[in-house]
Amino acid sequence: MFSPQGPSLRELVVQAMSSVERGYDLLAPKFDHTPFRIPDSVLDATADALRPLGPFGRGLDVCCGTGAGMRILKPLCQGRNTGVDFSTGMLARARRAHPDAEWLQADVRALPFAEDFDLAVSFGALGHFLPAERPALFAGVHRALRPDGVFAFPIGAPPPIGSRPYWALLGFDLAMRVRNAVWRPPFVMYYRTCPLHAVLADLTAAGFSVTTVPLTALGRRDDGSPRCRLVLARRT
């Protein structure tokens, strides 16, 4: 799962026993050599789905990490793009990789923007928010977008019940709950707390008009359904 340039087991344990912010600060130098970085195939499929809706003005990458989302914002957006994250270490890596973008350290549950952007994207971040925190996150993105602006992010289909991926994700989430029950500060990272129906309901409650499109380039499950969908939430 990890390249030789990635973190050691000891480094991963130290990161997992830290707060989310401190953990990502520690992981930042090697983050792009881990499977946690969003795959290029997902970025490419997202860009292909968004291209017919553009071009856009300014773009925002929510929970930007090391800046992988800039790979699609740059060709889709005509204005200057911004990435926001709360990890100093991750932002430092992003700033070095994309010096032409703006980078802001902030809590995305309280985004400091108002009608500044035409497209917002986010990749792999929802698991870092408890269900009760999603309304604040989505409200902030809604506020940051101009009228008719779009918030887009991919969301994977749940693995079939009883499959190896199902048990792996269930085991990971249970381990994280035990860890957070006995150790402080908590490290919030769950794979099973953001089902599609709940995410769509929270987006609608935040004022978005929501649709989804299948990212067929990422394949289909055995039942023919797409492995991944792109959520398109428009500020109407």
Automatic annotation (TrEMBL):
| Pfam families (alphabetical) | Methyltransf_25
Concerning Gene3D superfamilies, the annotation shows:
Vaccinia Virus protein VP39 (3.40.50.150)
Q: Does the keyword Iron apply?
A: no
Single Gene Ontology BP term?
Answer: methylation
Q: Which keywords does this Swiss-Prot/TrEMBL entry list?
A: Methyltransferase, Transferase
Its Enzyme Commission number(s) read: 2.1.-.-
All residue ranges annotated as the Methyltransferase domain in the record: 60-149
GO terms (molecular function) for this protein are: methyltransferase activity
Which protein are we looking at? Class I SAM-dependent methyltransferase
- What is the phylogenetic placement of the source species in the record? Bacteria, Bacillati, Actinomycetota, Actinomycetes, Streptosporangiales
